[in-house]
Write a structure and sequence with these properties.
This protein is mainly alpha-helical. The protein has four helices and no strands. The longest helix has 29 residues. The termini are far apart. The relative contact order is 0.12.
């Protein structure tokens, strides 16, 4: 009986740890920190590191729809947003959203 209780506690603890990990992962994705995503060859992006504004208006395998702007070249990014990626990332979420709407990437 005590073994069953211990097993149940262990199971609950593991389930809680999994839920916490999932919550942390979701929070990191949606925390509005504006961290710049780096494209890697592991992504399913046909090996491309950057895309044009027009290409990013359509879904692309391996490109996070919510962070499409991070797949613009530095030059295109400055042209579209009038600032670098780091400065953009430091903006308040609502300002980033408005800027992305203005250029058609939201």
């Amino acid at each position: 009986l005590e073994e069953e209780a211990n097993a149940k506690k262990k199971e609950e603890s593991m389930a809680q740890a999994d839920a916490t990990s999932e919550e942390k992962a979701r929070a990191a994705e949606h925390d509005g920190s504006g961290e710049i995503a780096e494209s890697t060859e592991d992504d399913k992006t046909d090996g491309k590191k950057y895309y044009t504004q027009e290409e990013l208006k359509e879904p692309i395998d391996g490109v996070d729809w919510a962070k499409r702007e991070t797949f613009l070249s530095d030059e295109d990014f400055v042209t579209l947003f009038g600032m670098g990626k780091e400065e953009f990332a430091s903006l308040a979420t609502w300002k980033r959203v408005n800027a992305k709407k203005k250029v058609g990437l939201f």
